[in-house]
Structures are given as structure tokens and as C-alpha cells.
Amino acid sequence: MHERPVGRPIFITITGVLQTFLSLVLLCFAIAGGFSYISTIYMLLAAMGLLTAAGNFRLRNWARFSTLTFSALFIVLPIGVVIFYIRLNNLRDPNNAADDDLMAYLAGILFVLMLIALTLAALGGFWLYYFNRRSIKQLFANAEKESS
Rounded CA gap, 90 and 143, in Å? Predict the structure, then answer.
């Protein structure tokens, strides 16, 4: 009986495509921000994301660990947004009507940011689960051995 060769699972391919897309979006934010410390951090994260995507396409074990690191960051991200929202609400002056309009506007923006952050947290949770599965660990380990 002829054995079928094991290929790259579709979720790893989707992860690589998604990592490439998110890294390019982050790179656009970095370029739009000009030269600053934040833009430099964005550029470094974008470069790491692009390298991780390339490593996932090639089933490199270091890329699996990098994806796990990014997934942990994605899970922690909503905590920062919530803390920022709470701090912003504490700055509001209840006696100033203009503050109410501004706060309503900022609350809308933060709501959208929270939806994005929660979506990324869900993606991070999935990656954390998926890339820690025994079969995926074995796939990356075998691909690493075959490439050596």
C-alpha cells in the first residue's frame, strides 16, 4: 500500500497568510507614523511577523515558537485597551458638557478598538491551542529533521 505524503495543514497556510497580512498592515502604520520610537517598534514587529510567516510556510520549529509568542501578545492586548478605557473615563469632568461629547466620541473609537483587540485575542487563543497540539509539534519537528 502506498502512503500519502504529509503536507502542510490548511490552518498553517492560513496562519502564514494572516501573519503576512497583519505584518504588512503594521508596516503601513509604522511608515505612516514617521520616525519615532513607536514606529520603530512597529517595524520590528512587522519584520518579525513576516519572518515568522515565511518560517511557518517552511514548517520551521522556531516559527512555531514565534507564533506562540505572538499569540500570547494578542491575548494580553485587550487588557491594555481596557486599562486605557478606564483611565480615560477617570479624566472626564462631570460638570463639563463638552467632555460628554468628546467622551462619547472616544468611547465609540475605543469600542471599535476593543472589538479588534478581542478578535486578535480569539485568534491568539486559537494559535496557542493549535500550535501546541502534539500532531503540530511533531509535524514541525519532522520537517526540521528532513530539512537538515
Answer: 52
What does pTM read for this prediction? Answer: 0.78
C-alpha distances (whole Å) from 37 to each of 43, 44, 51, 120, 135 are 10, 11, 21, 23, 40
Total residue length of the chain: 148
In this structure, what C-alpha cell is assigned to residue 38? 513607536
pLDDT at 80: 80
> With 0-12 CB in 10 A as exposed, 13-18 as middle and 19+ as buried, what is 138?
exposed
User: For residues 120 and 108, what is the distance between their CA atoms, to the nearest angstrom?
Assistant: 19
| Three cell numbers, residue 131 | 500550535
Q: How far apart are CA 109 and CA 21, in angstroms?
A: 23
DSSP string, 55-111: HHHTT-HHHHHHHHHHHHHHHHHHHHHHHHHHHHHHT--TT-HHHHHHHHHHHHHHH
Largest CA distance in the chain: 80
Unique residue bearing C-alpha cell 478598538 = 113
pLDDT at 36: 82
Radius of gyration, CA atoms only, the chain: 20
Query: In this model, does residue 32 exceed pLDDT 80?
Result: yes
Residue whose grid cell is 494572516: 18
